[in-house]
# Entry
Amino acid sequence: DAGVTQSPTHLIKTRGQHVTLRCSPISGHKSVSWYQQVLGQGPQFIFQYYEKEERGRGNFPDRFSARQFPNYSSELNVNALLLGDSALYLCASSLGNSPLHFGNGTRLTVT
Amino acid sequence: QQPVQSPQAVILREGEDAVINCSSSKALYSVHWYRQKHGEAPVFLMILLKGGEQKGHEKISASFNEKKQQSSLYLTASQLSYSGTYFCGTEAGNTGKLIFGQGTTLQVKP
# Structure
């Protein structure tokens, strides 16, 4: 079975631009969560979606948004990019609330 | 509030043992342990639910002290493949929202 897949793997954007990150969960998993991991730190919770509804939101500005589609895949959108948004963005899927199965992430660099 | 992990880093020789601790100031529903190798995704190791249950997987086991809101990860007879950064993720309720510690970097040398 395929694991969690994320695209793209790497991305370079300029300050002020917008970015869309994509995630396909493990087959059968209905919950998708997004985490931001800054170099040298643990992942930080951004969003959780279950059955296409937002179940939780972390302490991130409104520039961050997400959605889940009927096939349970998900998108994370970030508007008006700042240098501080440079990080590894991890998507995780789960059957219920846990355990989380992470994808390899999207490395976003904002210049 | 972010859990605190200790130590921040540890270097071992193959065959040695290690303990990684995770402490929270909040009452916890569960503690999750993950290992992340450089450039890779975090990999799930185990979950401990409140109740003080100890779990094990071959030479890696963990405990959860509900009264102290602490969890410990025990790595026995370490192997080179154990190298990586270990994260604990805590959950205040059955929400699926994990708050991760800052990580403990483990390096196992031959």
Remarks:
- Chain B touches chain A at residues 2, 30, 32, 34, 40-44, 47, 87, 89, 91, 94-103 (CB under 8 Å).
- Chain B has one domain: 4-109.
- Residues 4-109 of chain B form a domain with the Immunoglobulin-like fold (CATH 2.60.40.10).
- The mean pLDDT of chain B is 91.
